[in-house]
Amino acid sequence: MMQFVKTFYRDYSLKKKLIIVYTTFTLFIVLLVGISTYNLSIRRLENNEKAFITNKLDSTVFLLDSILDSYVIKSDSIFSNILIQRALTRNYEKKNVLHVLDAYQNEIYKTIDPIMDDVIERKYSNNSYVLLNSKVKIYTMNSTFPIDGGIVREYNKIANEEWVKSTEKENGRIKWRGLFLDQGKEFISVNRVHKDFKSLKPIGILSILIPKSKIIDLISLSDNEKLMDIYLFDDEDNFISSRNNNINLEDAQVLLPRIKDKDIGDSIIDFGGEKYIVVNNVSRVTGWHMIGIYPYRQITQSMSSIKDATLFILIIAIVSSILITIVMSNVITKRLSKIMKKMAIIKEDRYEKIDPIEGKDEIGQLDNMFNSLIKEINNHVETEMTLQTESSRLKLELLQANINPHIIYNTLATIRWKAKEIGAKDIDNVVEQLTGFFKYHLNKGMVIATIKQELDLIKCYIQIYKFTYNMDFEENIEIENEVLDYYTLHLIIQPIVENALVHGLRPRKKKGKLSIKVSNDSNDIIFVIEDNGTGMTQEKVLEVLTNAYESSLSGYGLKNVADRIKLYFGTQYGLGIDTQVDIGTRVTVTIPILSKEEHIGKIGDLI
Q1: Is residue 371 domain-resident?
Q2: What domain range includes position 259?
Q3: Where does the Histidine kinase/HSP90-like ATPase domain start and stop, copy by copy (predicted)?
Q4: Nearest to 213 by CA among 247, 257, 248, 182
Q5: What is the DSSP string of 479-532?
Q6: Which CATH number belongs to the domain containing residue 504 in this structure?
Q7: In a domain, 320, yes or no
Q8: Which of these, 563, 462, 467, lies nearest to 515 by C-alpha position?
């Protein structure tokens, strides 16, 4: 594999590389985007279906709770009615039939009938009414109350049943009973212990029966599409009601513990070799579980059109990308071939004139750079020939420069001897300083010097200047001993001192002061030259730094000093000027600490 990569990288033509690489890359991107889009669409559709199913089940539970709440309200109304309380707690041992009939008709039936009016079946006969399929049952503990077998029943007959015991444990609170048979029909019921309001003792069990058919009708009403199976289980996981199309009741009872263990609103479960979206909700009123089961294949069927569209778009995108890659590779390599032909021609004759390749893209820029390079090469060859001639001339001048200083030194020595001969000590002293100045100034043709040599030159220059212009000023030179042997560029301090004397102290009428300090700051050497002369305006400072303002004697301006420092050491080094009119000027020069070899290396790089 690595051998193929090396061969592909080194030996294949650029056109083949572009086609292979871009086609592979484009295929990868297109497939990645297509598959990601398809998966995202499935997840979004799946989430939408989950939300739809969950909302539908929530609506069903809400509707169920609303209906069951109405039965709870009916139970509260019967439970709290004074007439029914009076009828159930009265002693009927000494009462005749009329009293019993009055209790039934005017206290029990007449009270319960309006409460249960919307759910009770009744018919009238002989100017009275008879209740059919009564949905209200009161199991009385009053042994003297005559039992009619309709609403009022005997408590002792049901006292040992489990639903009665669980109801009695609630102590008057509502207790729901799961699915049971009554007279051949299936019901659920809302139950509670009926109490005497005066003694707070139980007087019976109040039970309101709700037919299973009502629950089934409610579930059917909430899901007209009938795509989702809905199951209702009581708090002991006993089946109550269902409307199923996809899986049977036994399978739903197996799924219920798994759904409850997940304790989530919705999930996807594999069951019987198929996937189902299962949603779970709990009735607020009864605490019973209602689950909805929706076949996942419905989502897959909905995705068939999206799948076909995605596949079609992928094919179009792949074919288009391959065609575009081939066309672009031809366009790019065609212009590169022109450059290669031009190079072959220039190789034979670099002065051959060839028309440039049009365009401002990278290939056009490459051609422009190649044309410029050829032009620069031709210019360089011509310049090199000129430089060789110039180099010979410079070598001759350097030889002359090495001879001329001897004439100067001999002449100055003669003047000094004559001055001593006639007793002119001041002339003798200034000639001595001038000799030292020229010695240091010429520096044997070197462009670098030690800081000690630079300061000796400055001292000579100050004494010469005092003598020449008959000036009286105070000079102070402070230097850290460890920097004396460090190297610097030759003649970078003297022009600054000259500027301080000529333009700062000389125009001043009072006695002046000149201070020179040299110190070591980490990896740098700091020169500070300060005078209390006339100072400069900011405009003058700008002129000095930008217009190569030159001192009157040496012709070597401060701008030249700054330029030399930046040229040799970089733009982070240089000089700074802090000045005020009639106060004075402070010039700070910063250079790096370099060895002699490092200095010479930098000079060699520049030359």
Answers
A1: no
A2: 55-295
A3: 484-595
A4: 182
A5: E-GGGTT-EEETTSSHHHHHHIIIIIITT-SSPEEEEEEEEEETTEEEEEEEE-
A6: 3.30.565.10
A7: no
A8: 462
